[in-house]
């Protein structure tokens, strides 16, 4: 029996929980909003703080909304929050995070850009797990604060409708063939505005006697084997391809192709807005080095004449598509390199514009040290995790000033925040 405590929520914090204080301890509470009095079931306890979930709302916030899904805590924990308030709180959280971790002194919270009518069905990619209940295979997400899987019947509110439709078709097939649940790892689906591809990742190299129907709802179906003996960052082996093999989106007039395992921005409309801002800060005729480049969405998507560009990415599938994108779009003086960013630091020179869009862990220390040594005039830093971005801004603060900082709501109904920082080298005194 988990302990239950009554708490008053003060505010929302980085990560998405409500913060409360009680008897000298700090509590981080899911499913709770500022001003609410709630009963909280404690999930995790530490010496100085606890983590829990509100199981009863004693007094409700005027900004609380009824969730549209019973699995919302696993999928989109901020379904319960008014969308205007969501964006306001993301600004407040960002200001607190940057001031605490980067040392930036912000007079007002950073500006945030969002689309009022695109808070649902915006994701062009979903990754589902599986769970078996009463002999039936179902789609699932991991629960907040735990390792348990939560099933869902209708897919996810955040996903493009076409993705959910394709997922249902695959689920029907998996149940029809009585697929062994222990062999199923996860299901990846992507949609490019015209067609949907799906990739089933299995833990065992098993043979399927049938396949989902390739047609209007599903243009391509791939099967991958993820060897459990390999490291978690190891790309699974493609063992079967049916139908279409890749997707294509048009970014600033360029057709950029990508595969199921390649990184591509999940909210295309919001990404294009960020790319417009990035393009503004890239001078005509610049030489750029784009780290964590994926298939080239930023480096190739900049709508200005670039003198030369180097795309650095460690995902081999993404690099393959990046090379193809360079060729088919006839982009001159560009190349794509497959390697970890920290191993390709020789490309950093004082006359280059450095673009980085790292994973949530932020920049590798080798990359940071090389930048500080070579002193390129400009760093364009797009991030999906403002805490690690703020940490990295602190590293650069001795030599660089933040000339531009803006938030983008790439991930409505969730606590996640995308941010763009433009850093310029301080002039020598």
Report on the structure:
This protein is of the alpha/beta class and 429 residues long. It has helices at residues 72-75, 83-101, 161-176, 268-281, 316-328, 365-374, 386-396; strands at 4-8, 11-12, 18-22, 25-30, 37-45, 49-59, 111-113, 125-133, 136-142, 149-152, 184-191, 196-202, 220-225, 237-243, 247-251, 254-258, 287-291, 308-313, 334-338, 353-356, 378-383, 400-408, 418-425. The chain has 3 domains: 4-64, OB fold (Dihydrolipoamide Acetyltransferase, E2P) (Beta Barrel), CATH 2.40.50.140; 91-116 and 267-425, Vaccinia Virus protein VP39 (Rossmann fold, 3-Layer(aba) Sandwich); 125-248, OB fold (Dihydrolipoamide Acetyltransferase, E2P) (Beta Barrel), CATH 2.40.50. 20% of the residues lie in helices and 33% in strands. Strand 11 and strand 12 form a beta hairpin. Helix 2 (83-101) runs parallel beside helix 7 (386-396). The longest helix has 19 residues, at 83-101.
Features:
single chain; 7 helices; 20% helix; alpha/beta; seven-stranded mixed sheet; OB fold (Dihydrolipoamide Acetyltransferase, E2P); 23 strands; eight-stranded mixed sheet; Rossmann fold; globular
The fraction of residues assigned to DSSP E strands is 25-35%
Give the strand order of the largest sheet, numbering strands 1, 2, ... along the chain: 7-22-23-21-20-17-18-19
- How many domains make up the coordinates? 3
How many beta strands in the DSSP annotation?
23
Mass-distribution shape? globular
Specify the CATH architecture of the largest domain: 3-Layer(aba) Sandwich
